[in-house]
Amino acid sequence: MDYIIENELLKVTITTNGAQVKSVIHKTDGVEHMWNADPAVWGYHAPILFPHAGKVVDNKIEAKGQVYESGQHGFARLMEHEFVEQTEDTIVLELCANAETLAKFPYEFRLVSIFTLENDTVHHTLTVENLDSEKLPFGIGYHPAYAVPFDDKHVATDYELRFSDTESPICLGCNPLGLLHGDIYHLPANIKSIPVDENLFAEGSHCMVSLKSTTLGLYEKDTGRGVVCNIAEFPYTLIWSKMGGMPPFVCIEPWHSLPSPENGSIKWEEKAAAAVLQPGEAWSCTLSTSFVR
To answer: CB 3.0-4.6 Å disulfide test: which of 125, 133, 212, 225 passes with 220?
Structure first.
């Protein structure tokens, strides 16, 4: 089911399928900013990553004495979330533990998505509540995909990723298996921007750590139009697109946790977590994205 919130600047469509931002249309010029989830390329708009971001060893976790299959990025992006309420500028969805989730992840939880529209900015707040009788470790992240080009007058190379501060990005190596292997590498030093071209994602994503910037945006170089993510509260920011050829979209992915190490344990409590909640506790984070003109 799709739900819409809008104001004088933006029309935003939220889908209960994965609790994703499905569409953001800027009313000043009619630009659709979200990737269309073409299944032949990559079948998501802006998935949320829970209960882990990235891959786990052997696609398995061991929790509460039992082994469970767990695919990349967990299961929240694959499930139908329930509608809770809507106001003029807000939509609330939730995913609660049920028979389907308990077959994959043996914890009672509530995952709440609150989407709020404020001027040219969409805020997506994720709250995890531990409804279990045991402590709940989890990972979490965002994975929005922004379509390029913005219109038929531009091509993908007319865009760049732009930091709010000068950066010398340090990246954690996790290609080609999607698991951490202990190596680090550097993107070019003392940069304010990264050009978008066919080579940027030739070997996969780039997982940047310890950035000073408060924002990372995808900008159209000649006009200044852009999609700007506030990454200040996130320890990891990834950039990614489908490998091979010119990118049809660019993902800016703020994460609070990482994939497992290649030779790491499958034991859930030994995996580095975004947070570990005691019974009854809750934890929240927010991705704020501005669609600037």
So the answer is: 225
